[in-house]
């Protein structure tokens, strides 16, 4: 931990100050140049369209064909150098593979969502689309996406998930933990005044058990449910604690980022599903976006670090599953062969039993014939 603190204070902070100075200098320089250009040249319409977000599309050596340019008006566009900010066009942390453990309860599982992937699908889709390999890890599989591993239990309170994580986290060593914990403490009205202590211990544990992890701590979603749990006020109280805890984690220079779920762009009662506790489908997408923003912030702060190598855990969670179809086929074949073998053994046993019976009959007939030979009876039919 000390090394990490030193690292942050020596690298990120110093370089942030240097970067800010450079930025100020750069901004004023750009301003002067722009003024100079505007005084000497007429405006090039291609340039005004060609800057900004689309600068990463440079398939034609800095030019872009008219067919793909969204505002296309004929002729190749010249592209500006653009503003390549990690998290928008470029992968985070130079394309660092992210081994992610989502720890939480039913909302983390994506319960009540249409595909049971919850916020994990939008998070995964986004990160892989900008070039960061993703592997979700955890002891269970929930949801219909391929890379669906997770550490989440419906109804689990914070300290329950702490104990669960003790059986998975040290063996999977994620470098990113998405924690959404506390809703069930609220629903079960479990010692709310001391919630922050349990949460602090949990975070402490995560950062110890997987020392290269960054932890994204989500605040709780609002709830308007009143019949069963009536936990709205408790959620407000716990969120207050979570935000204060975050200030403490910042003071302690922990690799922790807050994902504020209840901000102006966050989850509001109209984004909840019919049970008034879990998000609806749009709500899960919003959670995903908020978590992605927190991950981008973690990268900007220099928190993201390579995951510790663990045997059997690949960088890409989909690649890890690519043999699944073969395994299913091989297992079906094994079962089929076992069934055939059983059938065959039963047939052989049946024949053996028949033979025993048959031979016993013959013996009986032979004995009878021996007796009949003495009394001139004809031989039994069917026997030559
Ligand atoms: C790309 O453009 C630059 C500058 O116009 C030119 O010097 C270079 O040869 C071009 N490269 C290719 C592969 O066309
Ligand atoms: C997952 O389930 C949803 C809802 O049934 C469906 O629309 C989607 O295509 C499924 N995705 C996969 C990969 O099976
Ligand atoms: C430079 C370029 O890609 N020009 C294309 C613009 O669109 C027309 C119609 O699709 C093409 O024929 C040009 O080649």
From TrEMBL:
Pfam families: Lipase_GDSL_2. Keywords: Coiled coil, Membrane, Transmembrane, Transmembrane helix. It comes from the Eukaryota. InterPro entries: Ester_Hydrolysis_Enzymes (IPR051532), SGNH_hydro (IPR013830), SGNH_hydro_sf (IPR036514). Residues 332-368 form a coiled coil. The chain crosses the membrane at residues 23-40. The keyword Methyltransferase does not apply. Residues 141-285 form the SGNH hydrolase-type esterase domain. This is Carbohydrate esterase family 3 protein.
